[in-house]
Amino acid sequence: MTDATAPAPAGDVLLRVENLVKHYPVRVGVLVKREVASVKAVDGVDLELRRGETLGLVGETGSGKSTLARYIAGLHPVTSGHITFDGRDITNLPRQKMQPFRRDIQMIFQDPYGSLNPRRRVGSIIGDPFTVHKIASGDKRKRLVQELMERVGLNPEHYNRFPAEFSGGQRQRIGVARALALRPKLIICDEPVSALDVSIQAQILNLLEDLQSDFGLTYLFIAHDLSVVRHVSDRVAVMYLGKLAETGETGDVYSSGRHPYTQALLAAAPAADPDEADSRQRIILVGDVPSPLLPPPGCRFHPRCPKAQELCSQVVPPLEVKSGDPETHRTACHFPVETGEDLARAADMLRDRAEPGLG
Questions:
Q1: Position 246 in a domain
Q2: Distance CA 73, CA 69 (A)
Q3: Given CA atoms 182, 118, 68, 214 in this order, what sign does their dihedral have?
Q4: Is residue 169 in a domain?
Q5: 123 pairs with which residues across the strands?
Q6: Strand 105-108 to strand 186-190: parallel, antiparallel, or no bridges (unpaired)?
Q7: Structural domains in the chain (count)
Q8: Domain identity same for 262 and 201
Q9: How many CA atoms lie within 13 A of 347 on its CB side?
Q10: Nearest residue to 109 (alpha-carbon basis) of 196, 197, 185, 10
């Protein structure tokens, strides 16, 4: 675990994202199309990922988590900003120049059913990286694939089976084996357990933890389940509508989250301990996440925020260290939550004003 009071040395940072922006143009017209607006999927994100750690990226559906992951992996070009991986700028590299980095950056996808080609045998699916990067073929390729299958808890004798012959948890192990094949430095886990039963989730999470320890892997772990993120992450980044709302060591964010949105997410997370559930503030937000096509001015959370003031609708809050917080804990909020503050009561008052007669 890294020192919570000091920034990471430059050589310790595997991935650095600086002011990353991705806007999708919205065009209208039949013969001549013209751009009339843009969807601001990712809008000025800065983050660092240290070697050997797990950074949890959380937020509601539509916050831009998976979009950010795909641009970090170099799957699509970004609008602006920089992505530095292992000391090299990989922003918008052409396919041929990006190829060497694909060995070091792999992904595990959310859907173990949709991410595997049902017409191909498991041995071919896991062995694809060896073929694409011309590492092994024939009997050597088969041996490497079967070693991987055994390492992730699959029977190597099932090399010739199709994905449909495996359970959901086994299919996700196939995805893990495929991502592990080239011994990457970074694995992006895009909600890798959200489609699995709770009993199977723990098995996959324990497998990922063991692999990280054995191979020195670094994870960017994307999820909407805060209890899962708390279990696996060294640090957490909270994302809302294309921007980061808060980042910090996991213990700091979960024990003393400063952004009202972070507090609302924590309040909504299920608690195994009934006493803990009863003692939590019940923070119910007003409305839905706005459209990234037309995000609110100023702080994007202000229309739903129980602490919002006039400044919040006018000025975008910087992601910065607040008074009393360690250097690694940063919050993008003009009026951060203070210790002991009753945010639930403020949220109820805001909801009553927005929905008179429904309280």
A1: no
A2: 6
A3: negative
A4: yes
A5: none
A6: parallel
A7: 2
A8: no
A9: 19
A10: 196
Return the axis-axis angle of helices 122-132 and 138-151, rounded to nearest 10°: 120
Three-point CA angle 326, 18, 56, nearest 5°: 55
Four-CA torsion 46, 48, 53, 58, nearest 10 degrees: 0
Which residues fall within 8 angstroms of residue 58, CB to CB, at 6 or more apart? 65, 222, 223, 224, 226, 229, 236, 237, 238, 239, 265
Nearest to 67 by CA among 77, 52, 53: 77
Residues 64 and 192 in one domain: yes
- Burial of 63 (C-beta count, 10 Å sphere; 0-12/13-18/19+): buried
Return the CATH number at 199: 3.40.50.300
Q: CB of 181 within 8 A of CB of 129?
A: yes
Q: What range does the domain containing 212 cover? A: 10-233
- Cα of first residue to Cα of last residue in the chain, in angstroms, is 45
Please state, in angstroms and rounded to a whole number, the distance separating the CA atoms of residues 176 and 105.
Answer: 13
Task: Decide if 40 is inside a domain.
Answer: yes
Query: How far is Cα 319 from Cα 156, in angstroms, rounded to an integer?
Result: 48
List Cβ neighbours of 257 (8 Å cut-off, separation of 6 or more).
Answer: 238, 246, 263, 266, 337
Residue 187 placed within a domain: yes
Mean pLDDT by 10 residues, the chain (359 residues): 46 92 87 83 94 95 90 92 95 90 92 88 94 90 96 95 94 95 96 88 95 96 90 95 96 94 86 60 79 92 92 96 94 92 74 59
